[in-house]
Amino acid sequence: MPPAKKRTRAYDPAKIRTAVLAQFGNVREAVAALEPAQLDLPTRLGGWTVRELAAHLMTALGGATRFLAMPEPPAREVALLEWPFATASAAAQVDEAARASAAQEDLDALYTQTLAGFEAALPDITQGRLMPTRFGAMTLDDFLVTRTVELIVHTDDLNDAVPDLGIPYDRQALAACTRLLADALAVKAPGGAVEVRIPPFAVVQCVQGPRHTRGTPPNVVETDPLTWIRLATGRTDWKTALDAARVSASGERADLAELLPVMS
Fold it and tell me: For the chain, which has fewer Cβ within 10 Å, the N-terminal or C-terminal residue?
């Protein structure tokens, strides 16, 4: 697992909590309106249907509720910037949980129960609270930031699977997701030779080589938040995004193909 950076970006816990609830609400409203035929559509996530993807999105909060009911761990084991690299280890558990939840007919009722349970379990003051997760003990505040990634990435998967679904992206959730995945790239490829710009949310420097200090950097990559998120999670590849002019890259080191995806 790549080591976390010494200085981790700060997130406002109140804003993150609001963003998580807002994006969950966006998904819940859209899922409630889906017809049976739409729930049976395939997604870009291998063998998952829309129903299974929707069920997995419910567990983005349901898992937090279960973890909060467990005894608080004595010490943190996983830092926020280690989380993107740890998720692949739980793929089998995630798949099993999604399929089990999808077997239940009334997804809207499950979403309602999940939201109520999460709001009841979430303490008013989260700072310093530790909780167990599939990957080890994390702070609750860090775990809530990871929920923005789960919700935004899979909202995009739902929008891709169902034509004209158009689930909106909460701005604060989109910002947190973009920033965490950008910072993960800087952890994966530390250095200062390439500047990656994802306006309006993030700018990071990465890749070994001469560090830029002033003026226009010699190696610059720029893209929009959703394209970055798709690149960082393997929903699209570097060449496809470049050919579609969704990414601009200038400079001899500004090729991130070998560094992507960041999270799988």
Answer: C
